[in-house]
Predict the structure.
Amino acid sequence: MIKLYYHPSPNPLKVALYLEETGTPYEVVPIDTRKGEQHHPDFLKINPNAKTPALMDGETRVFDSNAIMLYLADKTGQFRPDASLLGETLSWMMFVATGIGPYSGQAVHFKHFAPEPKDYAVNRYTFEAERHFGILDAHLATHTWMVGKDYSFVDMSVWGWERVMPFVIGPDAWEKFPNVKRHFDAVSARPAAQRAEALKAKFAFKTEMDEASRKQLFPGNARLTPA
Ligand SMILES: N[C@@H](CCC(=O)N[C@@H](CS)C(=O)NCC(=O)O)C(=O)O
């Protein structure tokens, strides 16, 4: 059975949504990143990048959420836009992988977790995250779903990050981007999305962002400590 190495955050959640939508049997293996489980040698054999999600399908490992989405879509053939739309499909997938995801992640980091002074970084990353959500909003103004006429794994990939948009850009996010809100609500209303969201309640993940968590999540900070 497929094993999903999971933490209740945007990238693992979109994979859980795909597995739920397709009715693929899978086992959830919790990786508590605030406790540092992503750095465990056994997990590094599955994802050398020390991040969630990762997946084992028999003897095959797949890491990086976007690679996992493409892998699963290829494996199951479900919720896959028509092959004639490959250009759009790959373009929006890479837009999420290289734009929405990383800029949102950095915006959250600098806004909520970085030490002062941080004005320059907060401004740069919230501006870029907002710019990317603006592009998404403009696309969704004229498209019900991301690619083609049907709901697909591209919508699921976007949904992972839409969920946290107010945490990324601020409490007025939904008013700023009403088409993203419409899309988010449509995906969230699906029973599979509710099952994916409900996963986190099955595990007791650490919630405190204390000094020990920061050490695991931001190991680079050690370089700032005077010897
Ligand atoms: N490009 C990777 C990014 C994965 C990522 O940043 N995962 C976060 C959760 S959303 C994580 O595991 N963070 C823990 C850490 O950075 O130590 C992907 O899309 O899978």
Notes: The pocket of glutathione is lined by residues 7, 9-11, 33, 38, 50-53, 64-66, 101, 105, 217 (CB under 6 Å). Strands lie at 2-6, 26-30, 54-57, 60-63.
